[in-house]
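Q: I'm writing a short methods note and want an example of a predicted protein-small molecule complex. Could you take the sequence and the SMILES for pyridoxal-5'-phosphate and return the bound structure as tokens? Please keep the output block clean; save any remarks for afterwards.
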Amino acid sequence: MKPKLLIDLDKVKQNATELVRVAHEQNVTVTGITKGDCGNLDFAHTLVESGVDYLADSRVENLKKLSSLMIEKMLLRSPKLSEVQDVVRYADYSLNTELKVIEALSNAARSQNKTHQIILMIDVGDLREGIWFEDDTAILTAVNKTLQLPNVHLAGIGTNLTCFGGIIPTRKNYGIIHQIAHHIRQTFNIELPIISGGNSSSLHMLYETGIAGGINNIRVNQAIFTGQEIAFGQQLNGWASDVIRLQAEIIELQTKPSKPIGRKAYMNAFGKPSTFSDKGLRKRAILAIGKQDVDIHGLVAMDLGITIEGASSDHLIVDVTDSVLKLQVGDTIDFQVTTYASVLSGMASNYIEQRIYHEVL
Ligand SMILES: *Cc1c(COP(=O)(O)O)cnc(C)c1O
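A: Understood, no commentary inside the block.
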């Protein structure tokens, strides 16, 4: 039996519905994101049922899987020049920085008799995608050229924060986006309807002060899985945190010391020096799952008496001495999946069976 990753769609719906409620109250539209579970159709359908305004993914092959859903779709990552035909075919919008790509999108859209919607990305300091906010000339040139292309429409500007540089949204950096939008609207006398702000790191602002800077769209993925905003790592009120569980099977159950015995190598098989505390003899289980299957750092055993001691490529070592469960070889142990890195790796792993379900009430 493969390890199982279980996604509870009722909890996805609870979180997405609450997100849509609080955003719509502030006239902010919501882009529901499917990249965390590789464009799964049932998951996407649940987001649509929860009332999101758009669906988005960073990979066009995932958007292709969602073509049966009647909702506008966005490609989150700048299109590859080599895929513009598919981008125009499967996405209504894409987030862009490069004029060369926008030109290619216009050509592809013309060949398909379509108009493709462009959101121009501005980098306000996190240093991932976008034209640098201080480069007025580059911003105005990109807008000007985009407006002249026949088969693209400049629908808005956007920014992304926290994903690379760890910078959180503030009145200051969202204020910059607002000023740039205002400047573009004035200079070119266009509507520029969308100002798309950040991601799960904007949620604290949405709840605490209301979203700043005229941002009228947010794009959210990881909070749907973890129930946490990511600016301060707070659990969100009314959101479920246990959306995803992982089950793995016990293949060995032995009593051993907690501290290895013998002369130590300069590092272990994963390039890290290893340190262990001496807790005496402990009951330890080995589970048939490891670093090749999933990022283990985000796993927390549902039975709080069980602690993760570490993992190698195919083995997860847990201390079960204080567990209330009467565990045996062949039993499974359940973990809550608490980080985005664990969700992403577990969903994309061929070694794990992903099961997306509605709780049987
Ligand atoms: C992944 C992604 C998001 C979602 O980020 P979360 O922090 O997971 O909510 C938003 N915008 C872009 C451009 C992304 O690539």
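A: Remarks, as requested: The first helix runs from residue 9 to 25. The chain has two domains: 9-226, 244-337.
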